[in-house]
Design brief:
binds adenosine-5'-diphosphate, single chain
Length: 518
C-alpha cells in the first residue's frame, strides 16, 4: 500500500477537530478553563507534558513514517534513545509478521482516512524483545490543513494481555473439561455451571444457576453433603472429596465423584469450586460385582454343603458296614464335584476372556456329528425333556471342538433349566450361505425383548438377584458369545417375550453361526 503524496492530503471531514500539531491536539482536548487555560497557546507546556509522560510512548513522524520526535516514555517502552531513532522509519518498531502484512503503512492509511487509527498488537523493542502495545495514531495538519505527519501514542499492555490470555485459556479449559464444574456461594446457591453440566446432568448451565445445591442431592446423601459443606466452609482454602447422588434433569439420580474447594476468600473466585464426574456406571458395575461375589459364593456353597453331607453319610455307612449304599453316595459325590468343576471352569473362562488369554485349538470336523453326540449326551442326563436333533447334512468346519461343545452344552442346559418338564427341545443345523446355522429352540419361559442383547453380557441374569428363581451366575452366554465371535460367527436369540405368572411360556430360540470350510 502506498501513502498519498503529502500535498494531496487534506484533513478529512470528520468530527475530529483540525489540529495544528500534536501539542495543539492535546490543547483542544483539554478543559477550556482553570489551570490549563493559562497555557492554551503554549507549545512549551505540552512539549514538556508529553516529554515527561513515562508510561506512554509518544512520538511523531513525517508523512512517510520517519520519526521526528521521541518522548521519555518512548525511550522507556521501546528502549531506543531519541538520537538513535530520529529520522529512522517507525517500521523498526513493528514485528516481522506485521511488516510482512504492511501493518505499519495500513495504520497510517487508516489514520489518514478516518482521522485516527486505534489498535493493539505486538511491537518490538530495541533488544528485539516483544511487548503488547495499544496504539492510537492520528495525523498532524499544518495551518493549510495539509497533513504534516503523524503522532503515535503507545502503551505497554503486556501484563494485561497475558492476564487476559490466561483467563481465556483457563475459561476454555473449564468450558471444554469433561468434568463438570460449578461455583457455589456461601449459602449453597449455584452461581456458575460449566457447559458439561448439560451432558452430565441434563441441565443447561443457565437453568442450573440459582438452584440450591442441597435441593438436588439425594435424600440419603443430604446429611453427608451438608456436613462436608460445613467442614469446608470452616476451613478456607481446604478441599474435600465426596461421592454422592444428585438429581438429573430427567428425574433420576446419578452418582457423582467430586472435589469441593473453598475459595470464598479468594477475591478472584469468591466461591466454593466443585468439580464432579459421573461414576454411575462404575457404581453399577461395583454393585453387580458385589452381587456376583455373593451369588458365586452361594453357588459354590450349595455343592460343598452336599459334598459334606454325602461324605458324612459315606463315613457313617462304612462304619456301620452298610457297603451297599457306597456306590450311590460315591455317584452323588461325583455329581457335586462335577458341578463345582463346572463353576470353577466358568470362572476361569471369564477371567481368561477379561485378560485376553482365551486360546483355541482348532481342528477340522463335522459339526453335524458333534451335534448328534451332544444331544445324545444331554438326553442321557435328562429324562424330563425330549431333545430332538435335526442335522442330517454333514457340515465341515474348522474350530475348537471342545469350545463349540461347551457352547452347545450351555444352550441346552439353559433350554432344560428354563422350560417345563415334558416339553421338547429342538436342535437344528442348516446351511446359510458360507455359514453353518445352528439353533436351539425350547418351549420355556421365554425372554423379554429388551433383554435380548443384555443376556450375552457378563454377570447378567434376567431379573433382580432378590427375585432369583433359577441357579446360575449369568456367565454361560457371555462365554458362549466370546467363543462364537472369536470363531468369526454370530450368536443371538429370538423370543416373543417372557411369560408372566403361570401362563405357558413363549419359548426361546438361540442361534449361532460358524464359517463353513469351503
Ligand atoms: P445362567 O443361566 O447361569 O444364569 P447364562 O449366561 O447362561 O447364565 O444366561 C443368562 C440369562 O439369560 C439367564 O439368567 C436367563 O435369565 C436367561 N436365559 C438364558 N437362556 C434362556 C432360555 N433358554 N430361556 C429363558 N431364559 C434364558
Amino acid at each position: 500500500m502506498k501513502l498519498p503524496h503529502q500535498s494531496a492530503i487534506k484533513r478529512p471531514h470528520s468530527k475530529t477537530p483540525a489540529h495544528k500539531d500534536i501539542y495543539s491536539t492535546r490543547l483542544s482536548n483539554q478543559p477550556q478553563t482553570g489551570f490549563h487555560e493559562g497555557f492554551r497557546t503554549s507549545d512549551e507546556f505540552f512539549r514538556q507534558l508529553v516529554e515527561s509522560l513515562e508510561d506512554y510512548a509518544v512520538f511523531t513522524t513525517d508523512i512517510k513514517g520517519n520519526i521526528s520526535s521521541w518522548n521519555r516514555g518512548a525511550k522507556k517502552i521501546f528502549g531506543y534513545t531519541e538520537k538513535e531513532l530520529l529520522g529512522k522509519n517507525s517500521s523498526v518498531l513493528f514485528v516481522k509478521q506485521d511488516l510482512k502484512n504492511n501493518i505499519a503503512q495500513k495504520e497510517l492509511y487508516t489514520a489518514l482516512k478516518k482521522g485516527k487509527s486505534i489498535g493493539e498488537r505486538w511491537h518490538m523493542r530495541k533488544d528485539t524483545s516483544k511487548f503488547w502495545g495499544s496504539n492510537l495514531v492520528f495525523p498532524l495538519y499544518d495551518s493549510e490543513k495539509n497533513v504534516r505527519g503523524f503522532t503515535k501514542v503507545t502503551r505497554d499492555l503486556t501484563d494485561r494481555k497475558v492476564a487476559r490470555d490466561q483467563e481465556k485459556k483457563f475459561r476454555s479449559v473449564i468450558e471444554n473439561s469433561s468434568d463438570g464444574i460449578r461455583l457455589i456461594d456461601r449459602n449453597g446457591k449455584i452461581t456458575y455451571a460449566s457447559p458439561s453440566t448439560k451432558r452430565i446432568l441434563g441441565y443447561n448451565p443457565k437453568e442450573y444457576v440459582n438452584q440450591k445445591i442441597i435441593d438436588l442431592i439425594h435424600k440419603d446423601d443430604k446429611k453427608i453433603y451438608r456436613d462436608t459443606m460445613r467442614k469446608i466452609l470452616d476451613n478456607p482454602g481446604s478441599s474435600v472429596h465426596l461421592t454422592y447422588q444428585i438429581k438429573h434433569k430427567d428425574g433420576t439420580y446419578r452418582w457423582m465423584e467430586g472435589v469441593g474447594t473453598n475459595l470464598l476468600d479468594d477475591p478472584a473466585v469468591n466461591a466454593i469450586v466443585s468439580n464432579f464426574r459421573d461414576i454411575t456406571e462404575r457404581k453399577d458395575l461395583e454393585r453387580r460385582k458385589d452381587e456376583f461375589v455373593s451369588m458365586a459364593s452361594h453357588e459354590l456353597k450349595t455343592p460343598i454343603t452336599s459334598l459334606n453331607l454325602f461324605t458324612d453319610m459315606l463315613k457313617k455307612n462304612a462304619q456301620e458296614k452298610k457297603y451297599d449304599s457306597i456306590p450311590t453316595f460315591a455317584k452323588k459325590i461325583r455329581q457335586q464335584t462335577s458341578k463345582l468343576t463346572e463353576i470353577v471352569n466358568d470362572l476361569l473362562d471369564v477371567s481368561r476372556i477379561e485378560t485376553g488369554k482365551m486360546r483355541f485349538r482348532t481342528e477340522k470336523f463335522n459339526l453335524s456329528e458333534l451335534l448328534h453326540d451332544i444331544v445324545d449326551d444331554m438326553q442321557y442326563t435328562t429324562h424330563k425333556h425330549k431333545i430332538v436333533c435335526i442335522a442330517k447334512q454333514p457340515m465341515l468346519i474348522t474350530a475348537d471342538r471342545y469350545r463349540i461343545y461347551q457352547v452347545l452344552t450351555n444352550l441346552l442346559t439353559n433350554a432344560i433349566k428354563y422350560s417345563p418338564e415334558n416339553t421338547q427341545i429342538t436342535v437344528t443345523l442348516k446351511k446359510q450361505k458360507n455359514f453353518a446355522l445352528v439353533s436351539v429352540a425350547d418351549k420355556g419361559i421365554g425372554i423379554s425383548k429388551d433383554q435380548h442383547k443384555n443376556i450375552f453380557d457378563k454377570l447378567y441374569q434376567v431379573g433382580d438377584s432378590k427375585e432369583k428363581t433359577f441357579p446360575g451366575l449369568g456367565m454361560g452366554l457371555y462365554i458362549s458369545k466370546e467363543i462364537i465371535t472369536r470363531h468369526n460367527g454370530k450368536i443371538w436369540v429370538k423370543s416373543k417375550g417372557k411369560s408372566i405368572g403361570k401362563k405357558p411360556g413363549n419359548g426361546s430360540t438361540f442361534y449361532f453361526t460358524l464359517p463353513l470350510n469351503v
